User: What shape does this take?
Amino acid sequence: MGEAYIVAAARTAGGRRGGRLKDWHPADLGAVVLDALVERSGIDPALIEDVILGCVSQVGEQSMSIARNVVLASSLPESVPAVSIDRQCGSSQQALHFAAQAVMSGTMDVVIAAGVESMTRVPMGLPTALPAKNGFGDPMSPGMAARYPGVVFSQFDGAEAIAVKHGFDREAMDRFALESHQRATRAQDEGAFDAEIVGLDYVDAEGQTQRHLTDEGVRRTATLDGIAGLQPILEGGRLSAGSASQICDGSAGLLVVNERGLKALGVEPLARVHQMTVIGEDPVIMLEAPINATRRALQRAGLKIEDIGLYEVNEAFASVPLAWLKEVGADPARLNVNGGAIALGHPLGASGAKLMTTLIHALRARGERYGLQTMCEGGGLANVTIIEAL
Assistant: This one.
């Protein structure tokens, strides 16, 4: 089987809900990243054979095949096809898997994997909040209800259950959240994100056009007391908004090719996709699947966790990466070294490609070889991708 190489990786800086990116239509937000991949690689865009784009809330401005609309809003020719996929928070990580599988099989040579989510303009949960008609509209089917009687699937409940199961109290998760902001602040100050971010224009409160180049959600003056003072998400719970991922607008993308693609495009690879895994587990606790997914991915790759230089584990809630660290036996110093979604934001369908973009740049900047990325996903799913920096 052939290899899959990533030759370009880019993302927008995250925008807070109602913040700097509020005036950006999601199709245009995604198009900016596609154009950046073409510009940074210097390729002929007509050679792109498909765009696979993740997006979770595919309604409103993100409906009617958001992937195709992103292509039509970009500088890519109309001949470039596109498809929208939804694996919840892992949507654009799965887009990378599909793109890699396409080029590894030889059915395609050049594919873009990307993701976009405007959580300001298409709020989280909107698809299930649309009014039912004629009694229809509940995503819980009779068959599901029979298999899981009385169960309400909730990521908030799942995150709390993980905290209780693995013994993480409120203080431990608040401390983890504070460190996420501190690492992100340090990364911004050191320019760690500069090479990966695509700049966007926005109009500030004074009506002046500014350039959006930094993740807007980072709280540079965060304190443990401030985070500890926030109300819990669930009554009597251990998690708060301070130890959960931030609502975020953003997009990200990766240009994926095989050996033929490398020769045809005349580009140098940034990284090689080494291993891809996806699993399904308990949909009730829901967010614990990254643990066993990581174990399976490492076993299939013939690696140990000690062989991995850096890990990106999505900070959907602080309990998720903390449980992952504990069960996998990973080194906390290698985890989310430039901060995670608690500080930088979690633009749902874009987060998989966003984390991979950051991981690639961090590996190369630090001279590390292998990187591992994993995401907890609604419904008890998890993707793991292991890459080799080149």
